[in-house]
Write a structure and sequence with these properties.
mainly alpha
């Protein structure tokens, strides 16, 4: 099995990567500021669940299909971009309701959780990243490669939950503090929508 010092190096690297600006942590930031810290936590759990899917894909070699097929890559990325644009529309709609001083409907925990899953699974670059990143810390001389990939995937998920959880607490705390202000709520919702649109554009024009 993988040595402890290698796992520690992998965990440290994973934390640094999770802190680097990217679609997932920006997604958590936007949702936490818009809907509160608990929203960020459930989105984080959804994203972590999506990472399980990517880990399985890499372990069983399914990610190679996305890597070799331009069509599969394009389908996934455009599905992800379309979903992000849908979330942007919802955020703008919520801003309009706040501006009319009508109550903004809170998203259910299940809805937030599913958002995280869809956001992660429809980003083909995550599978490609896993396929390039995980093998660097696996060694055929230390047992089953599949078992090592699952272990590394689990460590990466723990690092992601740790970092994104902190983002949820910080961004959610800001949102909670100003949630009773219609002007601030409208601004936060529009910023969230702008983030979603930016992520959609970035994903739509991403290349393998």
């Amino acid at each position: 099995m993988i040595e402890s010092n290698v796992l520690l190096a992998f965990f440290t690297t994973s934390v640094i990567l999770a802190l680097s600006p990217g679609p997932d942590n920006l997604f958590v930031l936007a949702q936490s500021a818009q809907n509160g810290r608990m929203a960020g936590w459930f989105v984080t759990l959804g994203l972590a669940t999506g990472l399980i899917g990517h880990t399985i894909a890499v372990a069983f070699g399914l990610a190679a299909i996305v890597h070799s097929s331009a069509l599969a890559f394009s389908i996934l990325k455009y599905m992800g971009a379309a979903y992000l644009l849908y979330l942007a529309w919802q955020a703008f709609r919520a801003a309009a309701l706040t501006g009319q001083q009508e109550p903004v409907q809170l998203l259910s925990k299940g809805n937030l959780y599913r958002r995280g899953i869809v956001m992660n699974l429809t980003n083909p670059k995550v599978s490609l990243f896993f396929m390039a990143f995980l093998p660097q810390f696996a060694d055929p001389n230390h047992g089953s490669m599949m078992a090592q990939f699952f272990l590394l995937g689990a460590v990466f998920i723990v690092a992601t939950i740790f970092v994104f959880g902190l983002i949820s607490i910080l961004a959610g705390g800001f949102g909670d503090k100003f949630r009773n202000s219609p002007i601030v709520q409208k601004t936060v919702n529009r910023i969230a929508a702008a983030v979603f649109i930016g992520l959609a554009i970035k994903l739509a024009f991403s290349e393998r």
